[in-house]
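Narrative summary of target 7.
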Amino acid sequence: MDIALNFTQHGDSGQPLIILHGLFGSARNWQGIARQLADRYKVYALDLRNHGLSPHADEMSYPLMAADVLAFMAQHQLDDAIVLGHSMGGKVAMELALSWPDKVSKLIIVDIAPVVYTHNFDDVLLGLYHVPLDTVSSRKEADKYLAEKVSTPSLRQFLLQNLVANTSGGYQWRVNLASIEDNMLNIMGFPENDTAKKHTGLTLFINGGQSTYLASRYLHTTAEKFPTASFKTIAGAGHWPHIESPVEFMSHLTDFLKSN
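Modeled conformation, tokenized:
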């Protein structure tokens, strides 16, 4: 069953451009990029299911999440759109383009490949579960607990964006941790039934040179599915090149959006 996705809109004219965030993220992570694009495009930053302010669901797979985006497009009467996706959102975008290519006028994928990854996010889940939500009195206190399991400060600050106050006076996570944990194999994978599908529309992959998510060993599979794609690497960036190197990222993005 399709989920009615929460979204934020930036700009009210121009070609529609949909932004899809990564795992444990939300539409708000992309506000800065969306605002920079709002003078030329009607930008929709979506919260994917089990994230942000979108509804929670027990099932979480790329065909389902792509269908959620398709339903969003139908609801907003978008015949097609430019689609930009990062990490998990990039896999959703790829699934959408492979399954409904006429709905994607241009495709931008940020630091992810259409492959199965062997690692998982058990350490992150362990850290999030480690925070005693009923007793912490501040985000700073929550960070102390999270730091016992997650050592990287920037990752903790990213994760803590999901911590919100609840009506009983404590805190809660906006993300549906139980569903994410149950569906981690789906999230780290990519649908096998897509092996014969190809997307030949205008496509750009942007990756961080310090990240392994689009390592050279994944390029053959990526090029098979997206034979017309171009690739840009931001040398000094990791998995979040749009945050770590925003000027270079926007340069690559705007050059591609201008292309035909």
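The longest helix spans residues 62-75.
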